[in-house]
Amino acid sequence: MKRFMLLIVAAVASLVAVADELPKTADIKCGPWVTAVGENEMTIVWTSTSRCMGWVEVAPDDGSSFYAVERPKFYEDFLGRHIVSEVHHIRLTNLKPGTVYRYRLFQQCIDDRGPSPIPLGRVTASNVYTRKPFAVRTFDKSKEEISFTMINDIHGRDDVMDTHTKGIPEAKPDFVVFNGDMASFMGSIADIEKDFMTRASKNFSSDFPIVYVRGNHEARGPGYSEFMNLFPSSTGTPSYSFVHGPAAFVVVDCGEDKPDSDIEYGGTAAYDAYREQIAEWLKKATSTEEFKSAPVKIALMHIPFEKSAGWWGNNELKRLLLPVLNEAGIDVMLSGHNHAYSFREKGSIDGNEFPILVNSNNDRVEVKVTKSAIKLVVKNLEGATIHEHTIKVE
Ligand SMILES: [Fe+2]
Known about the structure:
Layout: H1 2-20, E1 28-35, E2 42-60, E3 73-75, E4 77-78, E5 81-82, E6 84-92, E7 100-108, E8 110-111, E9 118-119, E10 124-125, E11 134-137, E12 146-151, H2 158-165, H3 168-171, E13 175-178, H4 189-203, E14 210-212, H5 227-230, E15 240-244, E16 247-252, H6 271-285, H7 289-293, E17 296-301, H8 312-328, E18 332-335, E19 342-344, E20 356-358, E21 364-369, E22 373-379, E23 385-392
Parallel strand pairs: 12-13, 13-14, 16-17, 17-18, 18-20
Antiparallel strand pairs: 1-2, 2-3, 2-6, 2-7, 4-5, 7-10, 7-11, 8-9, 12-21, 15-16, 19-20, 21-22, 22-23
Helix pairs in contact: 2-4, 6-8
Bound molecules: fe (ii) ion (FE2).
The site of fe (ii) ion (FE2) has 7 residues, from loops.
């Protein structure tokens, strides 16, 4: 009995010791990336190697050393406290349109298990000494020409991701669209990092914003609820709108493609009701003065509308959303999902009053927009142009 008690005491002591061994320092694990950009705001996201408090210092792009003066600090606060977490999303506000902001990430481990949080170890930060600080530009409604690059249906293929995004810093698009199914399923934050965000971070995402269009595969897996945590939007949902240059954009979430009762969803799907909510949101988003007055209107939606009777999800999207997008005067819709290229001319799929480009899973689309035209250039993995379309805007 005495020996048994000693064993219990030893086991409890070892558990306490393990609990006491909180990491003292945190480093950047993945990121940063930039979402929810507007003319006056943006959100910086990254993950850390351990739970910590994160903040961002911001400097103008004026050629000064980052160390020249004390820089303003931005934290993520909740109910009056700076958040301690492995995932950080710091909202920068009061920014100016079309302006480059340099920024630096900071991390401080905190032991907040007791009533009084205790800072641990040293503060770590992104390097602004031997490399250029991260820098990103806000959107600007007065810009006459804008550009963006779109990829989709990567399904965790790192080589495809690398090929299509390594040239982003030279091409300098205004933003990069992830049009869904970047991973095959959302297992965990670590899976999402491994599947595409580690590569995106290495290649471009600290300096070029991501516009993320959720695909049906991002709705799968236990980590699906991390989507908004990792890719915040201006609405707090995967459906949102924004304006940049002459173009107003609606990013429309699709839900899944099969009936809610399909065995693939194990009884968890409730997309019929969800699509109805999206249709209501879309009516409001496309009725604002800002949207209506934009010379160019672009819809980004992972699942395209089909001509013939498609799967349940496609049919429902067509029934609920196509009339709204027609009414909104959309000039072009950009989609993925089918893993094959197609270009559906205006009127070719029963009542679509705008063309739809469906990008394959292996190509990228480079887009340039002025108030009078949308130029779409589809490039393959070798960088060769394989399709081109110019859509005149009336
Ligand atoms: Fe898909």
